[in-house]
Write a structure and sequence with these properties.
Layout: H1 7-16, E1 29-34, H2 42-56, E2 60-65, H3 70-78, E3 84-88, H4 89-97, E4 110-126, E5 141-143, H5 150-161, E6 171-173, H6 177-185, E7 191-196, H7 201-209, E8 214-216, H8 220-229, E9 235-239, E10 251-263, H9 268-279, H10 282-286, H11 310-318
Parallel strand pairs: 1-2, 1-3, 5-6, 5-7
Antiparallel strand pairs: 3-10, 4-7, 4-8, 4-10, 9-10
Helix pairs in contact: 5-8, 9-11
């Protein structure tokens, strides 16, 4: 089930949990950063980013919030219910074009402000399931990610690229990464999809426990198909050996860029202040998570399928950065 949230709910929930420290100054600007599930990378990255912005940017109090992930975040930002959000680039692209998970709502007005890092599509199966290729998932019980999530969109596209019917050739469960790992551990599913950073804590905990032993399935063949079907969204990416316990060989697969996004109508000053807060304090950002340590100002400005906010264009131009 996707998470449907409003800005009022986000702030009220954070206040009740003691996560929002309201400043005495009346002009203190409160920013909501929408992230993802607790078992992935978006949430700790967003939490760390909220801390950096709150401590380093004058008159700002930022709070990170759990959501269903990219699809929720795009919708929340487009609706004005959050200020900054994380998304995979393919989900943001589907949003601005009103495709896939956004077909009912139509085009969403969001813009990129920075490219962060690339996520790897994890396809994790129990060793006893016998699954070693995506095609082997036929007839298996598989979690394809939370309903309407970017993981679900990618899972469906990868299954189709392997010649399977995503609706009928697998028994589908819609679980987030932490729930998927738990279900695999309990023998309730044979495999799960997850698009996320390396390492993803829920996958790391599952692999380290060794009960059951797991297999990381390559999507190297499928990514070639997807590059033709969805130009500019997916790239070949390797899961390096020993990224997870027991994973002794590198796994060829699919990568997708993760980006920070805002509403298309976000104020220029907000975008400029957030980017300055990040790149003027890059050491603090790098300390948040191994994936955050990959952020560079040069890599943050790239030629993507979704346009940058005009204030982001101006920020990078002022720093002498040209999109590559």
């Amino acid at each position: 089930m996707t998470v449907t949230l409003t800005r009022r709910t986000l702030i009220a929930t954070a206040a009740a949990a003691g996560l929002v420290r309201f400043a005495p100054a009346a002009d203190r600007r409160r920013l909501v950063i929408v992230t993802g599930g607790t078992g992935g990378v978006f949430y700790p990255y967003g939490g760390g980013l909220a801390k950096v912005l709150s401590e380093k940017v004058a008159n700002v109090q930022a709070t990170a919030q759990v959501t269903g992930g990219s699809v929720d975040n795009v919708k929340l930002l487009a609706d004005g219910e959050a200020d900054i959000g994380f998304s995979t680039i393919d989900s943001a692209f589907d949003g601005v074009t009103g495709a896939a998970a956004y077909a009912e709502e139509g085009p969403q007005d969001v813009k990129v402000i920075a490219r962060l890092y690339d996520s790897f599509l994890h396809v994790v199966a129990s060793a006893e399931s016998g699954v070693t290729t995506v095609a082997d998932l036929k007839g298996k019980r598989v979690s394809v990610g939370s309903a309407g999530s970017s993981t679900e969109s990618i899972a469906d596209r990868v299954l189709a690229a392997a010649g399977l019917n995503p609706a009928s050739d697998v028994s589908r469960d819609n679980l987030g990464v932490a729930e998927s790992a738990g279900a695999l551990k309990d023998g309730k599913i044979d495999a799960f999809f997850w698009i996320g950073g390396i390492p993803t804590s829920a996958v790391q905990d599952l692999a380290s426990a060794g009960q059951p032993a797991v297999t990381f399935v390559s999507t190297g063949t499928e990514v070639v198909v997807l590059q033709t079907r969805y130009p500019g969204l997916y790239t070949p990416m390797t899961l390096p050996e020993n990224s997870y316990a027991g994973q002794t060989v590198a796994i060829e697969g699919l990568g997708v860029a993760n980006v920070l996004i805002v509403s298309g109508s976000a104020e220029d000053a907000l975008v400029s202040d957030v980017l300055a807060g990040i790149f003027d304090n890059i050491d603090a950002v790098h300390a948040i998570h191994p994936e955050a340590a990959k952020l560079t100002i040069e890599g943050a400005y790239a030629k993507l399928a979704v346009p940058y906010h005009t204030a982001a264009d101006a920020f990078f131009a002022a720093r002498g950065i040209t999109a590559r």
